[in-house]
Please model this.
Amino acid sequence: MKKWLLILALTMTAAPAVHAQGCAMCTKTAAGLDDKSARGLNGGILYLAALPLMILGTVGFVWWRSNKTQI
Model:
């Protein structure tokens, strides 16, 4: 388990610029917007990402909790 956590930590910190990439269409759209609209676009992206992240977090927590009780 510690091996997988180390691999995950190294993967996440190895190339932070790669994780911050966006699609070309969003980049061009955001470049042409004013500050208020760009913040709205970013907020919308975060809003759309929230549900899948919560689902994955819940599944991960339930999995962790069930494995914790078996040990």
Observations:
- The helical segments are 2-14, 16-19, 24-31, 35-70.
- Residues 26 and 41 are 9 Å apart (CA to CA).
- Residues 35-71 form one domain.
